[in-house]
């Protein structure tokens, strides 16, 4: 059983290993293209099996039956398969036929080329199969490219290795629950990161897609979605993912892409995600050059969509090659044509033109569109006057592989209430660093979407800009004009620096302490003069008192009860997942529920709690629930799989099995809870071994001291590096040393320590090997109760403790602030003057002691 995470890892490792020095942006076309052809072959065999009534599940037998049936029924059989799928792959050109040729040694690159060309020819016969035409054109998959190998043998070897990478993947089974689509999308993202600046044309980072998609998905009814710069199709698919299952069935996907190879990638990606051919309309063309899609009945309106999403090329130069004028229906609303030097507003206006009256549009653009003047300023003013701009979201810089600049997501609507404010969100500081990129965490995405949904203002984060605000700013939408950064540093108080004491106004700003334990805070402060106080306890002492306070203890108990209830609500649900398609829904419910649960507790960061659950899903639940859905909880809990590890390096690098690991029950938990005594004995021996090692190290250091007794007795027993003793050297010195001498005693001590350490290390190694075997066998014999206990511990064992910290951390943070303030104002003008006077006295005293001699 293989999970989506394992598939992703294996395929990317294979891609990294096989592509050599070939550019990632080019290699992706070969890898993803052949992966898609395997999907088409698998679907063809599935359709044949279903329509012909073949009973076997053996793939080789199905292939042979298909070949025989084709020889007997020919076009009749093909028509039947084509009616089911809309396409077909002939027996001689199946991916499985390539694999058979590899096994028999008859594989040739020409066979792959012929297969791809044959598919193109067969599709061309059927006029309504445009979704598959040109997918494997030479411009995309040129198998004669010397980048694949300098000669035919090299190319054959590399392509054969790539073909084998997908050999054992059942693409039909993996498409269920979108496992295959997720793996494909993951590979696209990985190639994008490897491709650097070349990635901008085909990929929008997942977290940016999520922000846009989750907002757009809030539109009440979505039956059509359009991306005029569709790239790989990830934005379209992400929106679809956030709709109900029923809405997804009725959703029509539209997109246009200028780059032919990327256009092919889009179609493959949509099909692999289970989008039916009749539900997708994708065009290879220049979005700005010629409007598409058009409505012949209403040429000045264009086709309208329920939602429009796009991540266009930023500030595209020379975009107006067609000499478009303001009379173009797309630009009439602006009253001016966007500048030829920057195409940002041209893309925005194109998308807006195709947005339905009740729809939502999300577009990601550089920040310049918010404040640049000239024609762009005129367009921005007209859009604001028309009340089309709904929300401005500022994102961090370095989020995209193709640019380091910060970007903004602009939300547009045509049906906004008259006079409705524009929501400004500054999420530019909410990120973590992953390598060279800045990445939004799940909690950051959730906060942006919640702020959008609730239309709320938050100091330093969001603001509802009324029309008068915007007019005062001359229609400039630059976010800092509306949202001031919250100063984290507390302003210095000159009077406090001069005379000491913490300003009472700063104490009043300690909101969590003031609301939770105001009396304890007051009792720990002493007024030294009006308006200024000093701490009478250390912050450590105060923290101890606060954590033991009944109010805090009660709050923590309430948190424990809430979290235990929360876990219980989902424990049985998670154990009993039977359908892969239910997993995403359960995840969304859990994340939404934890926000609701934590929102009832004062002074707790709801989104930090949200992140805790999101990480549990990412690290454990997504993989485990996939396995449970494909089997059942207790069966999978008692199942183990080979533990494959990488050994060696360079030419000797290899993957080998090193024992077994539980499918969902970690071996470490079995050891900790079911073999605790054995583990304790091993740990005790390890600790003693470390103590012995420390004693030996001390003796080594003593031996390096000149004229010491250790040097005299032990120096000849040191190894060549002089960082340890050799057993042989010690024994030789013992033979040459008198039994009753102090040197003999030292040598004997070293010999005993070396012997003890050797014995301990052997015992530890043997015990660990035995315990490892016992643990691996125990997986198979776990009781239902043990599986329950161990998996619960794995998933939720630390959740309550982490949630409790959400109560304690704000208290600790404010106490640190209090400590900082105490230290800041500890040195007053008086103390500084006293120190200065003392330094002068010391200096004069030193001068008097100086004696000048000839």
TrEMBL record:
Organism superkingdom: Bacteria
Catalytic activity: a 2'-deoxyadenosine in DNA + S-adenosyl-L-methionine = an N(6)-methyl-2'-deoxyadenosine in DNA + S-adenosyl-L-homocysteine + H(+)
Domain DNA methylase adenine-specific: 176-488
Coiled-coil intervals, chain numbering: 750-777, 818-849
EC nos: 2.1.1.72
Pfam families in the cross-refs: HsdM_N, N6_Mtase
GO biological process, one term: methylation
Domain (N6 adenine-specific DNA methyltransferase N-terminal) ranges: 8-163
Top-level EC class: transferase
Alphabetical UniProt keywords: Coiled coil, Methyltransferase, Restriction system, S-adenosyl-L-methionine, Transferase
Transmembrane segments: none
Single GO molecular function: site-specific DNA-methyltransferase (adenine-specific) activity
InterPro entries, A to Z: D12N6_MeTrfase_N (IPR022749), DNA_Adenine_Mtase (IPR051537), DNA_methylase_A-5 (IPR003356), DNA_methylase_N6_adenine_CS (IPR002052), Restrct_endonuc_T1M (IPR004546), SAM-dependent_MTases_sf (IPR029063), T1MK-like_N_sf (IPR038333)
Keyword Coiled coil: yes
Entry's family note: Belongs to the N(4)/N(6)-methyltransferase family.
Protein name: site-specific DNA-methyltransferase (adenine-specific)
Naturally occurring in which organism (per UniProt): Lentibacillus salinarum
């Amino acid at each position: 059983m293989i999970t989506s995470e394992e598939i992703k890892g294996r395929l990317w490792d294979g891609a990294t290993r096989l592509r050599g020095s070939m550019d990632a942006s080019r290699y992706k076309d070969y890898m993803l293209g052949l992966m898609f052809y395997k999907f088409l072959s698998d679907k063809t065999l599935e359709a044949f099996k279903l329509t012909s009534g073949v009973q076997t599940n053996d793939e080789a037998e199905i292939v042979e039956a298909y070949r025989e049936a084709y020889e007997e029924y020919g076009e009749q059989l093909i028509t039947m398969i084509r009616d089911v799928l809309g396409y077909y792959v002939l027996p001689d050109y199946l991916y499985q036929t390539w694999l058979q040729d590899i096994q028999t040694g008859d594989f040739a690159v020409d066979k792959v080329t012929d297969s791809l060309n044959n598919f193109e020819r067969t599709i061309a016969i059927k006029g309504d199969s445009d979704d598959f035409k040109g997918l494997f054109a030479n411009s995309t998959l040129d198998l004669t490219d010397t980048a694949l190998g300098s000669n035919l043998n090299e190319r054959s070897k590399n392509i054969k290795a790539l073909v084998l990478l997908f050999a054992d993947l059942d693409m039909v089974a993996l498409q269920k629950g979108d496992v295959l689509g997720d793996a494909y999308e993951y590979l696209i993202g990985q190639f994008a990161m490897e491709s650097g600046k070349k990635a901008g044309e085909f990929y929008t980072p997942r977290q940016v897609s999520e922000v846009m998609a989750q907002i757009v998905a809030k539109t009440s009814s979505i039956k059509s979605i359009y991306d005029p710069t569709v790239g790989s199709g990830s934005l379209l698919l992400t929106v679809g993912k956030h709709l109900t299952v029923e809405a997804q069935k009725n959703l029509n996907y539209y997109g246009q892409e200028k780059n032919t190879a990327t256009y092919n990638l889009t179609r493959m990606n949509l099909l692999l995600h289970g989008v039916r051919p009749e539900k997708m309309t994708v065009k290879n063309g220049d979005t700005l050059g010629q409007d598409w899609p058009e409505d012949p009945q209403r040429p000045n309106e264009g086709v309208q969509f329920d939602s429009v999403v796009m991540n266009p090329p930023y500030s595209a130069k020379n975009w107006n090659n067609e000499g478009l004028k303001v009379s173009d229906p797309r630009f009439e609303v602006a009253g001016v044509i966007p500048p030829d030097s920057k195409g940002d507003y041209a893309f925005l206006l194109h998308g807006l033109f195709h947005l339905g009256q009740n729809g939502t549009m999300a577009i990601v653009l550089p920040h310049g569109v918010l404040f640049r003047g000239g024609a762009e300023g005129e367009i921005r003013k007209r859009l604001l006057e028309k009340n089309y701009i709904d929300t401005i979201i500022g994102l961090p810089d370095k989020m995209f592989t193709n640019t380091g600049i910060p970007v903004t997501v602009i939300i547009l609507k045509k049906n906004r209430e008259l006079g409705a404010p524009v929501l400004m969100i500054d999420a530019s500081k909410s990120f973590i660093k992953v390598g060279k990129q800045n990445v939004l965490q799940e909690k950051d995405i959730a906060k942006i979407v919640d702020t959008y949904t609730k239309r709320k203002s938050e100091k330093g984060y969001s603001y509802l800009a009324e029309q008068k605000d915007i007019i005062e700013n001359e229609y400039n939408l630059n976010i800092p004009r509306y949202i001031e950064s919250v100063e984290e540093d507390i302003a210095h108080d000159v009077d406090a620096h001069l005379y000491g004491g913490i300003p009472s106004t700063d104490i009043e700003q300690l909101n969590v302490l003031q609301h939770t334990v105001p009396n304890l805070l007051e009792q720990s402060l002493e007024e030294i003069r009006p308006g200024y106080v000093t701490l009478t306890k250390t912050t450590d002492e105060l923290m101890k008192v606060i954590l033991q306070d009944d109010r805090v203890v009660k709050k923590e108990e309430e948190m424990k009860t809430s979290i235990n209830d929360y876990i219980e609500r989902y424990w049985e649900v998670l154990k009993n997942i039977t359908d892969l398609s239910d997993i995403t829904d359960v995840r969304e419910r859990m994340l939404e529920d934890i926000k609701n649960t934590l929102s009832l507790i004062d002074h707790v960061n709801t989104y930090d709690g949200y992140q805790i659950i999101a990480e549990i899903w990412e690290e454990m639940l997504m993989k485990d629930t996939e396995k449970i859905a494909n089997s059942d909880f207790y069966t999978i809990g008692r199942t183990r799989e080979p533990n494959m590890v990488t050994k060696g390096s360079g030419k000797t690098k290899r993957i080998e099995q090193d024992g077994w690991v539980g499918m969902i029950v970690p071996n470490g938990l079995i050891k900790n809870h079911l073999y605790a005594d054995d583990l304790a004995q091993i740990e005790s021996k390890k600790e003693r071994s470390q103590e012995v090692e420390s004693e030996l190290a001390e003796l080594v250091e003593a031996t390096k001291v000149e004229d010491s007794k250790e040097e005299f007795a032990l120096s000849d027993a040191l190894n060549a590096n002089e960082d340890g003793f050799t057993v042989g050297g010690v024994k030789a010195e013992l033979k040459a040393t008198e039994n009753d001498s102090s040197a003999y005693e030292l040598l004997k001590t070293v010999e005993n320590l070396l012997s003890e350490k050797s014995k301990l290390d052997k015992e530890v190694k043997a015990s660990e090997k035995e315990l490892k075997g016992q643990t691996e066998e125990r997986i198979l014999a776990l009781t239902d109760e043990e599986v329950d206990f161990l998996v619960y511990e794995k998933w939720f064992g630390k959740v309550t403790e982490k949630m409790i910290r959400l109560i304690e951390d704000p208290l600790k943070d404010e106490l640190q602030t209090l400590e900082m303030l105490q230290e800041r104002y500890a040195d007053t003008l008086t103390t500084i003057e006293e120190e200065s006077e003392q330094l002068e006295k010391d200096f004069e005293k030193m001068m008097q002691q100086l004696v000048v001699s000839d």
